[in-house]
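User: My collaborator sent over this chain with a note saying "see what the structure looks like." That's all I know about it. Can you take a look?
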Amino acid sequence: MVNPSPTDVSTLSYEQARDELVRVVNELEQGSSTLEESLALWERGEALAQRCEQWLLGAKARLDDARRAATSGDAARVDAE
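Assistant: Without extra context I'll predict from the sequence alone. Here is the result:
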């Protein structure tokens, strides 16, 4: 078994967290870990999934902000004409 990475989840990029989450899920699916190892993997997986969700929510917020800015910019141009 590969031990869960000690890297602080909050420092991982989306891609790093996603890739490690895939590895954790694969390892859990193999079912060859002890109960204690499985619990540690599960906890790590939960933290990684939460990190991915944080990144995705942040990306969505940035897109929403960009859309609002573009829409308000279009409205300002129409008003100016």
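A starting point for your reply to your collaborator: The mean pLDDT is 89.
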